[in-house]
């Protein structure tokens, strides 16, 4: 009973995005403020890119990182946890797998990085999870909210650009408005973002997901300033040559939770995962 919505401690957390916005319409205003920011294309210098089922945490004094971010989120939800006093921030790209453990890890990492800094509150921001036909995004939202609500610390939801607030109708198809965000760890600014380069070792990191990894991997050691992938087990995909022989449209329809709204590079990235 420690989730704080619009400054009020909650006995129960909302069951879905519609309930959240009905009970706390202020989140519509917060979402619109984010949507009014132009999407920035972020280059690789000073970037820590976080992929699906990955998370990372850093503090403002980190010499290696200026921006931590992720993109290509359709039914997934991007989660940002920040300590308002120290500026320590953790970012994760959740698809519904491994949420409970990852939420605890995110908060713990932010607390560790905030040690010795002024007092502050733990703030939570959610972006993504558009209104998709199968309501996959709603399932991810519910899992995330439940996980934070079970945490023993008070956590203040300050942004919820999810569900209908991150959805635009194009023709007769619901589409995400924001696919990715970046966080400036020096200032705390959060903004819509795209990342032309998603390295290093993007193919290997994606292969971990393709083979069914059930955890969210913490990829950054802030004490050493080192990107750390693994360890994890990997078995070659049986019939990979048959998958690689399929058309982009086939891959899109069979390997995406939201084939109508995936970015144009989806099929190419899936193919590169299977080559590893």
Automatic annotation (TrEMBL):
GO terms for biological process: ubiquitin-dependent protein catabolic process. It comes from the Eukaryota. InterPro entries: NTAN1 (IPR026750). One of its GO terms (molecular function) is protein-N-terminal asparagine amidohydrolase activity. Pfam families: N_Asn_amidohyd. One of its GO terms (cellular component) is nucleus. PANTHER family: N-TERMINAL ASPARAGINE AMIDOHYDROLASE, PROTEIN N-TERMINAL ASPARAGINE AMIDOHYDROLASE. This is Protein N-terminal asparagine amidohydrolase. It comes from Glossina palpalis gambiensis.
